[in-house]
Amino acid sequence: MMNRIQLKRSGILKMALSGSSDLLLQQKDGESSTRQPSFLLRALRIATVVSLYWFISITMVFLNKYLLGSPSLRLDAPLFVTFYQCFVTVLICKVLSLLASCCPPSCLDFPSIRMDLKVSRSILPLSVVFIGMITFNNLCLKYVGVAFYNVGRSLTTVFNVLLSYLLLKQTTSLYAFLACGIIIGGFWLGIDQEGAEGTLSWAGIVFGILASLCVSLNAIYTKKVLPAVDGSIWRLTFYNNINACILFLPFIFLSGEFQTLYHFDKLGSIYFWGMMTLSGLFGFAIGYVTGLQIKFTSPLTHNVSGTAKACAQTVLAVCYYEETKSFLWWTSNMMVLGGSFAYTWVKGLEMKKVQEEPVPKTNEKNETGV
After folding, report:
1. Global confidence as pTM
2. Shortest CA distance to 333 belongs to which of 199, 184, 190, 137?
3. I need a labelling partner for 306 at 20 to 30 A (CA). Which of 16, 50, 67, 296 fits?
């Protein structure tokens, strides 16, 4: 029973990383015999989960922006901030594992976690990509505003198409290519408008592009190394983050951040460490609520929700920081969001078409006597 529940949750989170609908169909087949809740209850669940995903995702971005680039905090240590978030995730995984060993599965279902050097080494390639993803994400956020953050790292979809062809030899339809073209156009228009307003940071743009590339690679490597942890996304999270904590230490030392922390005037502040810990909690929670949103909706709906969330995040950032943006700046954002939505819609139609194609019967030859 425990293995069944664990594989079921692993399947949900693998969909979040791979964008595949096959696992969703398998899950639905396994649940078809159970009684479905009422429409009102399902709608309430979906609204709650989507709202929770929006709240955690948007709050995490604003919180990280405060830690990485707040004039009142004045902490120039992005690698240490990222390291601490990984450290908090490791602690949460270990605490939940210990609690699960003392509680019945009906109260808390979490896999047993222990350190295994062999497994840790097999996860190492993913950990390197994972470090790049979270580091470049945070560095992009450090150098660009929250309002431009979505555009700055908007090329993930484009890299997904490119890497799918280069690594998996998967072709992409013309309509999906057109959607990618709209995203690229919005990306360049956004750079142009940021430059016109005098707020352009080429460092932030480069980090955003690298973050987009690492997000795509992270999905590919995650699918490759999941068997090493028996398909458990929680074990993968534990090993990935503990590897990241170890690998971050020499980079923090070489970058001089230890010296920066030594002279940091708020190092003894409870408020500072509270905000740092809260950012780690939100970093852990975003993975969980992503899985919940896919479980109660679908991978397609999750992508649409993410696009709408990015739009709301941009508007909130402009209002919160009291910024004034030009019409073309808003146009660049709408192009990125519109292109992302169009790509999601096109891929959804393509998956639906594949699912509706009749599957040839294996025993047709025997029936016809050929």
Report:
1. 0.81
2. 190
3. 67
